[in-house]
Design a protein that fits this description.
The complex is a heterodimer.
Chain A (H helix, E strand, L loop, with lengths): L1 H19 L15 E3 L22 E12 L13 E10 L4 E8 L4 E11 L2 E3 L6 E11 L16 E12 L4 E12 L10 E14 L2 E10 L11 E10 L2 E8 L6 H6 L11 E11 L9
Antiparallel strand pairs in A: 1-6, 2-3, 2-14, 3-4, 4-5, 5-7, 7-8, 8-9, 9-10, 10-11, 11-12, 12-13, 13-14
Chain B lengths: L1 H16 L4 E14 L4 E14 L4 E7 L4 E2 L2 H11 L7 E8 L11 E13 L2 E14 L2 E10 L20 E11 L3
Antiparallel strand pairs in B: 1-2, 1-9, 2-3, 2-4, 3-5, 5-6, 6-7, 7-8, 8-9
The chains are: A mainly beta, B mainly beta.
């Protein structure tokens, strides 16, 4: 009996002591409130290399981009391994909100104007709402403004138009690795020879691997389904590196594609890696916050 | 034997008496401000959680790093990805004690100033801190406030050379919490 009482006594004495204990976890009294954690920054910028990534300019943010490809490396010393040649695209992109981005640009390749829209449909998340992937939709229209090859013929403006549609399916696997698949449909109103398809179906794939917090290695490949293009065209393959410095992202890369818009690099890539038809090139992105976000009132 | 029973009863009584009121919030407002001649950076978070045990003076605060909102989206991305590494260290916490808790009467209107001393943990680094705290009781409204300065270097937040001039080494942090009784 005495021993039993002693135990009871100890137990009772233990209660106030525990209440004073530093280790007691007060916050756990509130219980867990589950929240949704969205994956952010799957890629450093809106492009993997040529391909659009699932990233886009945030609402109210303007992204000014200069993309540049030198000539083919295999042109030798006379062309300074391509440095004498240049193809350029200058573009502006603007986030209407965090989900919708509009953009436009002008490329020297085929004197092309392009305009596009990119919309976030799904965002990768974990926690309360779980979504394994991010999904975006991309559509663009391009206008080739080269002089008519045969001015004496009856030419239609619509012949200059090409369209690209893409689904961007991406997953950020961890802090370093993100992969993306981009099923692509290109439509050309006019093709050069009847053997070429008006509608070209292709599958793009790409990814990035972060080396440090501010740099990553990127690669992408676009597989065009067979028998749609003439044999002179090759699949686009690019490898490169992203370097981020504050508001700028520099992308340096090697690619066999000359064009920097979808309708061009998917269906008009003439370069062959095996032959050394490789462009050194870069994209520079600079973002400007045009419209500051509304901060929640205190 | 009787004495023992008495002692036992007394101890039980004592132990229930210490189970006094706790106060809490899930919507503590936390903001910080970094001022340099090149750039001012502001961010705020309205989902801090805080619990005070009025009996012991124990206080705990936690906030989600990703919930900080910036005026510029890119700043927010860099804050999470490059500086706070919020995927690895999702929360910042403070665990400590309010000094002279007995002098604060949570049921009597007035303004009480004290200090919270304890451990501030963020970016995976623990630092002992002591910050001034004001607790204001107005009717049934209880507000807790603090203001203190944090140096990113103390928490191993690496700021690379080119942007050193843009991020202050004395970042001012403000916390304001409207507390409610925790009924449990």
């Amino acid at each position: 009996m005495k021993r039993f009482l002693f135990v009871l006594l100890l137990a009772a004495a233990g209660v106030p002591i525990r209440a004073q204990d530093e280790g007691e976890d007060l916050l756990s009294l509130l219980g867990d409130e589950e929240t949704t954690d969205y994956a952010t920054a799957s890629f450093k910028t809106t492009r993997i290399i040529n391909l659009h990534s699932v990233e886009q300019a945030a609402g109210g943010v303007l992204d000014f981009r200069i993309s540049h490809r030198f000539g083919f490396i295999n042109t030798g010393v006379y062309e300074m391994f391509g440095l004498d040649g240049a193809t350029i695209r200058i573009g502006m992109e603007y986030g209407i909100n965090d989900r919708i981005m509009l953009g436009a640009g002008r490329s020297s390749f085929n004197k092309t104007y392009d305009a596009f829209t990119k919309v976030k449909i799904l965002r990768q998340s974990s926690g309360k709402r779980t979504m394994p992937i991010s999904l975006s939709w991309f559509s663009s229209i391009t206008v080739n403004t080269l002089k008519w090859q045969f001015p004496e013929r009856e030419n239609h403006f619509t012949s200059r138009l090409q369209y690209a549609h893409q689904l961007l399916i991406a997953r950020k696997f961890n802090e370093r690795l993100s992969l993306q698949l981009s099923p692509t449909l290109i439509h050309r109103n006019l093709v050069s020879v009847p053997e070429e398809a008006h509608d070209v179906i292709a599958f793009g794939g790409g990814g990035r691997f972060k080396v440090t917090k501010r740099s990553s290695i990127n690669a992408e490949y676009i597989y065009v389904l067979p028998d749609q293009l003439l044999p002179m065209y090759h699949n686009s393959f690019s490898v490169g590196m992203d370097i981020e410095t504050g508001g700028h992202v520099f992308q340096l890369h090697c690619t066999n594609s000359t064009s920097m818009v979808e309708t061009g690099f998917v269906s008009e890539t003439v370069g062959d890696w095996m032959e050394g038809d490789i462009h050194f090139g870069f994209n520079i992105s600079r973002v400007f916050t045009v419209k500051q976000r509304k901060r929640p009132a205190e | 034997m009787k004495n023992l029973f008495f002692l036992f009863a007394a101890l039980l009584g004592f132990s229930t008496a210490t189970c006094a009121q706790k106060y809490f919030t899930r919507t503590a407002h936390i903001d910080f401000y970094s001022h340099t001649s090149i750039e001012d950076i502001k961010a705020e978070n309205n989902s801090g959680t805080l619990v005070i045990d009025a009996a012991t003076g124990q206080i705990e605060v936690a906030c989600t790093i990703k919930a900080f909102e910036f005026e510029k989206a890119l700043m927010q991305e860099h804050f999470n990805e490059n500086y706070m590494e919020s995927n690895t260290y999702p929360n910042a916490t403070f665990k400590g004690k309010l000094e002279n808790i007995s002098s604060i009467n949570f049921t009597k209107p007035g303004s009480y100033t004290t200090k919270a001393t304890g451990t501030l943990t963020m970016h995976g680094v623990e630092q002992a801190v002591s910050v001034p705290v004001t607790i204001t009781v107005e009717g049934d409204k209880i507000t807790g406030e603090t203001r203190f300065v944090v140096n990113p270097n103390d928490y191993k937040i690496n700021i690379p050379g080119p942007v050193k001039g843009k991020i202050s080494e004395a970042i001012e942090v403000k916390v304001k919490a409207n507390l409610a009784q925790l009924k449990k």
